[in-house]
Structures are given as C-alpha cells and as structure tokens.
Design a protein that fits this description.
Blueprint: E1 2-5, E2 16-19, E3 29-38, H1 41-47, E4 64-72, E5 84-88, E6 97-101, E7 105-107, H2 114-118, H3 121-134, E8 142-145, H4 151-163, E9 166-171, H5 176-181, E10 186-189, H6 195-202, E11 208-213, H7 217-226, E12 227-235, H8 249-255, E13 258-261, H9 269-282, E14 304-308, H10 313-321, E15 328-332
Parallel strand pairs: 8-9, 8-11, 9-10, 11-12, 12-13, 14-15
Antiparallel strand pairs: 1-2, 3-4, 3-6, 3-15, 4-5, 5-7
The structure holds NADP nicotinamide-adenine-dinucleotide phosphate.
NADP nicotinamide-adenine-dinucleotide phosphate (NAP) binds near residues 41, 239, 240, 264 and 325.
C-alpha cells in the first residue's frame, strides 16, 4: 500500500509518499480502506522523534481515519465489508489501509462525508474523556477549555455546551468568533487577559468545575486561581511547558482540587472500546440531529480548518506547528 513515511526524524520536509506492507487484521480486528485521515499535534512530535507509538502499534503516523471496512478478521461481529467507519488509531492513519480492533471503530453517521468523519475520533474522544469520564462535568457545571480553537478544544467547547454547561475558552484573538460560535459563553484572549480573573468574575467566584488543559506549566498557577471547590483539572499536554515552579499544594487542598494527567493513545484496548461505545451511543446521534442537555439543543460538528491532499502534508504540518490552524486539518488519502 501507499503511505506517508519518513526514514529519519526531522522537520516536515522528511515526509514523503512511499510503499509499506499492507497490515493484516488479527482476530477481532477490521481492516479499513482509508479515504481520509486528520492531523494531530502528536503526529508532529512523533515525526520529530519525540513520541514513539505504543508497543505493537503501527510506526506510520496518524491517530484517526475514516473509510470503508475492506476485510473483517476472525470473530468480528459488528462490521461487514463495505460499512462506512471512522476509527481511533494508535498509529497508521497516513496510509491507504489500517487495521483496528473492531471496538475502536464507529459507524459514520449518514450525511457526514469521509473528510468530516475523519476529523471526529481523536478530538471528540479525547474531549469527551476529559470532560465526562475524567472530569465528571455536569449540566449545571462550568468548564474552562484551554486552546479552545485547537482540534481537541473545538470538540471540548461543543461537548461542554451540549452537556448544558457554561464554557470559557482561551484562544488567540483571531479565533474567538469561531470559539463563541461553537457555544463558548466567553472566549478569553490569553495574551491580553487574565483568564483566572475572567472566570472568577463571570461565575461570581464559583470558578471552573472542569479545566481541560493541553498547556501545562505556563497556565498552572492561574488554573489554581480558576478552579472551583472540588474542581477537576485535566492535563492533556504540555504545550506551555512541563515543569511548574511555585505550585502551592495548600491552594489545591483549599479547593479540594483533583489534578489528573492523561494520554489516550497508550490506554488499553478495553478502555478505548468502552470510551468509543459510550461516545457512539450518547454523542454520535447529535452529529445529525440536535441533542444534548442544554437549553438550546445543539448539533455537534467536526470543525475543519482545511482539507489537503497527500502532496500537501509537509505544509500542513508546518501550519499546525505555527499555530495557524483552527480546528482540524483533514488529509485525503491516496
Ligand atoms: N492527552 C491526550 O490524550 C491527548 C489527545 C489529543 C491531543 N492531545 C494534545 O493536546 C494538544 C492539542 O492538540 P490538537 O491536535 O488539538 O492541537 P492543534 O489543533 O494543533 O491546536 C493547538 C493550538 O493551541 C494553541 N497553543 C499552542 N501553544 C500554546 C501555548 N504555549 N499557550 C497557549 N496556547 C497555545 C494554539 O492556538 P492559539 O492560536 O489559540 O494560540 C494552537 O493552534 C496537543 O499537545 C496534543 O498532543 C493530547
């Protein structure tokens, strides 16, 4: 099969289309003919040699895809050849074919294209895990979503609002219109505003019940000033640094705050299967008809910055690393 490969880690110019063995499905797995994949920051880290795939996963980049079921492995019950499916992958999305445990794939809702579907799994599953499974966000809660216009952020803002919660989202100013259109109560320009002061003022001192945080160190002290009593602070990445100076644990105790750090990629197959099943049952119907618990029922949608071809992958990586994207870059495969 054709795939996007690189021989040694480096800048985006190392990426090129080449030949790779077509993966074979094992019992319980399906093989997808991929029509579209979507880019993630993790792809850039892996390309630079900093984020190796978990043991047993494909070395090829790509954490999600959409396409058709091409082969079903022994014992697969839920899928038939020809079904339209989108899947969470531990690797291998930048290729014509990928194999995946049957429980990590979801049916593509009628009316969604392969390009739209490819932008759903990694962002929405990460966001739903952070907000609901780890954060326990309630319909009357308050969420603070950092990097609100990122792939994960655009999903988290929508899901929090879909749940009925109030949502504050940090983003650079040029991305505020998007974030507010997705349902944020208030977008916060982290370059000119103190997000902790805004959240405290707008919630009458309650603070954020759940903080979705891919930034890390540079926001840590202000997160503690933003968090509600019994709040959950979910760290997903360290785009703003990993080592926190001056973190006062007494302030965490005073708020009875819970700090959880999580990565989805290295979770067990069983964990991912449960996450996918719950998301498919509870959230997927809202991609085609308004749902959720909010006063205004909301439609969920993947936010797509651009759809590119294989030959544009290096530029797409550059734009993502330069923080020039809002939502997801989708790549057509083949
Ligand atoms: N733990 C997990 O399970 C998991 C799963 C998926 C993704 N992630 C991680 O989550 C992060 C977001 O991923 P993504 O693919 O959604 O990203 P993305 O779409 O590339 O968006 C990232 C955005 O974050 C903002 N940003 C970057 N550096 C920043 C900084 N130092 N301070 C403040 N804002 C900053 C920029 O937007 P502005 O213009 O607003 O600055 C940038 O466009 C990545 O680090 C990724 O690896 C973790």
């Amino acid at each position: 099969m054709k795939a996007i490969l690189y021989t040694s880690p480096g800048d985006p110019s190392v990426l090129r289309v080449g030949d790779a063995p077509t993966p074979m499905p094992r019992p319980g797995e399906i093989r997808l003919r991929i029509r579209a994949t979507a880019l993630n920051r993790a792809d850039c880290s892996q390309r630079r040699g900093h984020y190796p795939p978990p043991p047993g996963a494909s070395e090829i980049l790509g954490l999600e895809c959409a396409g058709e079921v091409e082969t079903v492995g022994e014992g697969v019950a839920r899928w038939r050849v020809g079904d339209r499916a989108m899947a969470l992958l531990a690797g291998g999305g930048y290729a014509e074919y990928a194999v995946v445990p049957e429980g990590h794939a979801m049916p593509i809702p009628d009316g969604l294209s392969f390009e739209e579907a490819a932008a759903i799994p990694e962002a929405f599953l990460t966001a739903s895990q952070a907000l609901f499974a780890l954060g326990g966000l309630q319909p009357d809660g308050v969420a603070l979503v950092h990097a609100g216009a990122s792939g994960v952020g655009t999903a988290a803002v929508q899901l929090a609002r879909w749940q009925g919660a109030r949502v504050f989202a940090t983003a650079s100013a040029g991305k505020h219109a998007l974030v507010e259109a997705l349902g944020a109560t208030r977008a916060i320009d982290y370059r000119t505003e103190d997000f902790a002061a805004v959240v405290q003022a707008e919630t009458d001192g309650h603070g954020a019940d759940v903080i979705v945080d891919p930034i890390g160190a540079s926001y840590a002290i202000r997160n503690l000033s933003s968090i509600a009593v019994d709040g959950r602070w979910i760290v997903l990445a360290t785009m703003g640094g990993a080592v926190v100076d001056g973190l006062d644990l007494r302030r965490m105790m005073a708020r009875r705050a819970t700090l959880t750090a999580s990565t989805l990629r290295n979770r067990s197959d069983a964990y991912k299967t449960t996450l996918v099943r719950r998301f498919a049952a509870e959230c997927l119907p809202s991609f085609v008809q308004p749902g959720g618990h909010g006063e205004v029922p909301r439609l969920l949608r993947p936010v797509i910055d651009a759809v590119v071809g294989w030959d544009e992958v290096a530029d797409a990586h550059r734009r993502m690393e330069a923080n020039q994207t809002a939502g997801k870059i989708v790549m057509r495969v083949g």
